[in-house]
Protein 1
Amino acid sequence: MMKQIYSFALLGATALIAGTFAITPVLAQTTAYPAPRVDRVVYAQPMTAAGYVYSAQSSDLYEYEISKIGVERAQNEQVRLFAQQVLNDHGAAMSRINVAAQQAGVSPTVGILSAPQVAKLDELRKMSTSGFDKLYARTQMESHETALALHRGYSQGGDQSMMRGTSSEMATVTEKHIAAGLKISTLLASET
């Protein structure tokens, strides 16, 4: 019996991975930004409003925490200003998502950081000042790619119309952060 359950779990995981690879080209055709990395495409799948709220709050919390570190440690003034803007926007986004959740009849949640996110925050805190700004910018870009896939995915296939509208708004904010992050990355690359 256990072997049969294991076989079904393995088959399901294989189908999930195959499905993830299959939708990557579709995302690449519909986005003005580079398609999210394959490990981030999982968010593009339709999900429940409760699942979206939890994932969005966790994403916002992570970007908020990254930005707190950026405001404290950035050496470049433009990086520090970017970190402050992201900090402000994600503080507001966490509140906006909770308000929308309540209006939609979904229990608001508090985001939780994953073990890899906590490790990345520790890495940022311990990074030498000379390499901090580039690591900060790269970390923000990776996190925002993930968030964009989440927000776009729910806005296109989520189960609750009010939350789909909120996720669309969050995608717009995330796109602005990505555009600003690309400018910061270009600026930092030119400084070397």
Protein 2
Amino acid sequence: MRQLLRFLYGIGLFAAGILHFTRTAGSQSIIPRQIPFKKEIVWISGVIEMLFGGLLLLNKAVTAVSRLLPTFFVAVFPANIYMAVKNLPLNGKQLPKPLLWGRLPLQWLLIRGARKLNQ
């Protein structure tokens, strides 16, 4: 079960990281206006996601990733809140409001799951 969880997190994180570079504008749009250096934040978070995803897929440094990933998910949570509050599109596609708000509890499930990657 842990292998499957690592694989799913690995693929998901790596793919999300790639999207930070291929759809930079969409990722920038969900960062609250008050925060500067949006492009740099998007790129750095994309690198982190690709790094974490790659490490999980290679089954390397899983202990470190399982400890750092919950903090990373908490750090990006304000962008998800901002997206729901402002009703922003996801990669150019407008999602129904209930779906935008429904993503918020999902983030907490991702955090809990990340803690189980190395158990």
